[in-house]
Amino acid sequence: MEMNERKADYFAANMIFGNVYKYFYSIGDDSFINKVIRCIDVYKAPYKAVLIQLYEEATTSYNDMTLREEILAHFDEKPSNLIEKFQELELDPELVKPSYIISFGDLWKKNNTSPKRTNRRIISRTKL
User: Fold this and answer.
1) Which of 13, 48, 97, 109 is deepest in the core (most CB within 10 A)?
2) pTM to 2 decimal places
């Protein structure tokens, strides 16, 4: 399921990206991570989607092997303090804050059951 979610995130991010490479370099003298965070904020895209898009543009369109290596060095190291970094850069951290929403969506409908009926079935099985 996680791979499908990543593909969906990537597809959606790909649809909204303009030339993220040009924007990345227009930011000026800042650290790599801060530039990526600014891209996340502007494009409202996940961390990995920004890195993938930058990687693709750096390698296929601009032949920028320095940026390519920088991306590879950071690809598996998502910053642990993204909320703090967003605040330091005076960006809205709501984009990276966890939502803590658990939704079963249509799962109850697909199983043709309701949460109450399911709980009763579990309880009745445990009494046996």
Assistant:
1) 13
2) 0.67
